[in-house]
Amino acid sequence: MDAQYGLLFCFHLVSFLNCVFILLKYIFLIFTGKKMAYQKVNADQRAPGHSQYLDNDDLQATALDLEWDMEKELEESGFDQFQLDSAENQNLGHSETIDLDLDSIQPATSPKGRFQRLQEESDYITHYTRSAPKSNRCNFCHLLKILCIATILFIFGILIGYYVHTNCPSDTPSSGTVDPQLYQEILKTIQAEDIKKSFRNLVQLYKSEDDMEISKKIKTQWTSLGLEDVQFVNYSVLLNLPDPSPSTVTLSSSGQCFHPNGQPCSEEARKDSSQDLLYSYAAYSARGILKAEVIDVSYGMADDLKRIRKIKNVTNQIALLKLGKLPLLYKLSLLEKAGFGGVLLYIDPCDLPKTVNPSHDTFMVSLNPGGDPSTPGYPSVALIASFSDGSFRQSRSNLTSLLVQPISASLVAKLISSPKAGTKNDACSPLELPNNEVRVISMQVQTVTKLKTVTNVVGYVMGLTSPDRYIIVGSHHHTAHSYNGQEWASSTAIITAFIRALMSKVKRGWRPDRTIVFCSWGGTAFGNIGSYEWGEDFKKVLQKNVVAYISIHSPLRGNSSLHPVASPSLQQLVVEGPSFLSEALFSTRATKIEEMDPSFNLHETITKLSGEVILQIANEPVLPFNAIDIALEVQNNLKGDQPNTHQLLAMASRLRESAELFQSDEMRPANDPKERASNRIRMLNDILQDMEKSFLVKQAPPGFYRNILYHLDEKTSRFSILVEAWEHCKPLASNETLQEALSEVLNSINSAQVYFKAGLDVFRSVLNGKN
């Protein structure tokens, strides 16, 4: 817009100089007694005494070219509609004064400008022929009038240009500023009906045994919407699949055989729900048959195990374990160390909302912490699968020595001889096995391990000013041989709807400042294999260039409340803290999702909320990350009755001081366009991008996040590794594990404090160097 304002200013300046030129010529003719006339004629038609300098063809051609070039620039800058309607064709004097045709301050519409239009007028010569001035006094009055009018026109032109500059919005915001209406303009095109149509088209494909059909559908749709360089990224991985025959649980006392959902082991039951039976299993569990006593370990906490081991021998016994409170992989590691041989895993109805009744629901879990189990630490590219000797792979068909089988709450009720979870005074009674009773069962776990190709679909929108900074948006699609849930269809429909809205704006010339990478992951149900392998494949690039990851993994789980999850530095965008996602994958039918959101208005709302977060991170000049939120999160994690934390609290206080100083000295002026220094924005964003990396630990306990700021759940506001350390030390006399965890937390807080301080020092040194 500044360039257009400058052109407008130059245009009026040229117009004013043109008037001055005419005025000087008029004065010259007055004092030389020559007749003044503006006639555009050939050289052989000129009147005697005509000035060869003023009417020189080269001089006139130069003037014409100058004015045409200026008019062309203004036309290209979008001023073709600009004109002074109030002054159009205005007569500036009587018949004996010089007329100023105001067409001279309007952009030309013909290729050669206004002069060609004048040449094409038949009465051109007679119209612009004037009689000689009659007296010097009269000419002086006319001269004064012309000078006043020219000055007024010049000032009026400047005022118009200034008004246009300050009040006319630009279609594309200039660098460093963001139009507040831009995001709403993009998001308002998202419609629930489009999401519903996309969802229904996707769910028709999930029954295919070849997941490439779904991947191709997504790739074709994203490409048609205009997404750039959409491609497949394939990995050959080791998948643990259900056996054609479902697992079973048999009561030794009665000989009754049950499937995981609680139905008897009859042929009719298998025919009615064959898919649910097959996919109710724990991927990467040990395989085999185990006959042993069932021991109720509740949630498998350290206190539970300590209590049970005092009264019973748990070696090679079967643990009855509830899902929840601590990560499943962590609890299984404790059971494995304790000597258990098998685990029956279930969800207590008392831990779920009253509106949910999963009594007969079966579910799937994965015991894979992430990625291809046979290629830990490096990507499982398709080339590796071609080596028949398998020298690049580890033989890891199971990731635990335990036989693990998920079962329904109705089957648990049969095992403990209880009809169902009872209620007393509207309070739910948890399922539990009586201490004085013994239950012996035989559990059979059957799975098959195969090498399969997992496909990711990846495309992007290249950023305009910082194309090497990536915002990754991820959803997942159905993978063949996995549980037939429908959450993937919701997530894919939502991410596709946002791509459609975004690309409609991109096609009109706008681009975000940073690159947005859209990914649809494969193999998610088996331990986030597709995303994990892709991360290992591009590890070096991602560690340096990724700004944020926005997951649309499981967008719809109910219709009662909104529950977003975010890192501490991004809490100002979503208002919720980090917590674990559900570890159980249920068989959610397509009709069930449409029952929760029949109009798909919830899908539309989630798409718009997620889209606004994506746009802010991708397009704000300063990343919308908050340093103070991290410091506050650290202090909140150390509140309460926690032993040996006085040194941590002192370090957390210093971290908050550094964060507040960083916020006031750098973040505040950077977020003010009037104070913003463009050469410091990139440095500031680099600091904001990496500030949470101080809280990454090298080795986390099984099932825990490496980022120690992430909570175990929304009810726990303590450092996760400290929670694990306290749990670990409860059955032991030594507190060595706790001291190691405290050292990890102390080092992380100190590292973050030093990081903010170093960032401030860099800014100050740069500023001092310039001064």
From TrEMBL:
Taking the record's annotation, the residue ranges forming a coiled coil are none
Q: Which residues cross the membrane?
A: 6-31, 143-164
Gene3D superfamilies, per this entry? 3.50.30.30, Transferrin receptor-like, dimerisation domain (1.20.930.40), Zn peptidases (3.40.630.10)
Q: Which UniProt keywords apply?
A: Membrane, Transmembrane, Transmembrane helix
Q: Identify the InterPro entries for this entry.
A: PA_dom_sf (IPR046450), Peptidase_M28B (IPR039373), TFR-like_dimer_dom_sf (IPR036757)
What family does the Swiss-Prot or TrEMBL record give for this protein? Answer: Belongs to the peptidase M28 family. M28B subfamily.
What is the name attached to this protein's record?
N-acetylated alpha-linked acidic dipeptidase like 2
Q: Which gene encodes it?
A: NAALADL2
